[in-house]
Design brief:
Blueprint: E1 5-8, E2 18-19, E3 28-29, H1 34-38, E4 40-48, E5 65-69, E6 72-76, E7 82-89, E8 92-95, E9 99-100, H2 107-120, E10 125-129, E11 141-145, E12 151-158, H3 160-164, E13 168-174, E14 179-183, E15 186-198, E16 204-207, E17 211-213, E18 217-218, E19 226-237, E20 250-263
Parallel strand pairs: 1-10, 18-20
Antiparallel strand pairs: 1-8, 2-3, 4-5, 4-12, 5-6, 6-7, 7-8, 7-9, 10-11, 11-12, 13-15, 13-19, 14-15, 15-16, 15-17, 19-20
Keywords: Signal
InterPro entries: DUF306_Meta_HslJ, DUF4377, HslJ-like_sf, Hsp_HslJ-like
Organism: Snodgrassella alvi
Length: about 270
């Protein structure tokens, strides 16, 4: 499988903005740099054809995220992790053949993985940032368009490592059933989670007890139809006041990878 160049439209200060020219929707873009790509987690916000219609295979409310680390590109949030080496050269980004994990999931989730690869595979892509360069408060938007005029729009969220430092990695099994629990805001439906430990060979060696979790896992959506095991990056957010107690420390949970997922079978009803 060959993945060709991803062209990055450049805008030099004082010059005219480059425009995506293959779709019916004209957009002005400026060049994106390696530091800008690496500074954000890019969350998929839109996937449409040249006429603005939703692209087949991309689920509404997708939790797909793209991030860049060094010379590596990763797409997560679907069924499998999709990754590839990339290299910027002037206005082009050369993407090598992607590598994917081989998990089986529900057909609609697997279709989204295939749609991402098909969008890039064998295509010469145009990409750039949409927001004005001098608007420091705007959330950056990364526009990627192929020669058929189809496009993916990604919104940037500051990468957690830059905000909080290096994370602790944990593995959680998520039950497809929630549990009513009490929070500071009152009664709520909590996730039921339990921690799993693996040895260096990736063999499961210990499973913890179920407990309630009232927090949020960034980049992940609960699915009551699936049993899942997640690899999470947990970031410790210490209070600004160094005199704060341990009780003041908060945690940010971000999805790194879905390790296991299986469809929950509906119980069979007995006929009288």
């Amino acid at each position: 499988m060959n993945i060709k160049k991803l062209a990055v439209s450049a805008l030099i200060a004082g010059s005219l903005a480059a425009c995506a020219h293959t779709s019916d929707r004209k957009v002005s873009m400026r060049a994106v740099t390696v530091p800008q790509l690496s500074a954000y987690d890019w969350q998929l916000a839109e996937a449409t054809d040249r006429h603005g219609r939703p692209l087949p295979g991309f689920a509404a409310g997708s939790s797909m995220t793209m991030n860049f680390s060094g010379q590596r590109l990763n797409v997560t949030g679907g069924c499998n992790n999709i990754s590839s080496n990339y290299q910027l050269n002037d206005q082009d980004m050369q993407i090598q053949a992607p590598v994917s994990t081989m998990k089986a999931c529900a057909p609609d989730i697997m279709a989204q993985d295939s749609a991402v690869v098909a969008f890039m595979n064998g295509q010469k892509l145009h990409a750039g940032l949409l927001n004005a360069e001098n608007d420091q408060n705007a959330q950056p938007e990364l526009w990627i368009e192929n020669r058929r005029g189809e496009h993916l729009l990604w919104r940037g969220v500051p990468a957690a490592v830059a905000q909080y430092g290096q994370p602790t990695v944990v593995f959680w099994e998520i039950s497809p059933q929630t549990q009513t629990c009490q929070t500071a805001q009152g009664a709520a439906q909590c996730l039921k989670v339990r921690e799993i430990s693996y040895n260096d060979q990736g063999v499961k060696v210990k499973t913890g007890v179920w407990r309630n979790f009232a927090g949020k896992i960034d980049g992940w959506q609960f699915n009551p139809q699936e049993n899942q095991v997640l690899r999470l990056n947990v970031y410790e957010v210490k209070p600004a006041d160094v005199t704060g107690t341990a009780a003041d420390i908060q945690y940010v949970y971000k999805l790194d990878q879905i390790i296991e997922r299986s469809v929950v079978k509906s119980p069979k009803h007995k006929h009288k």
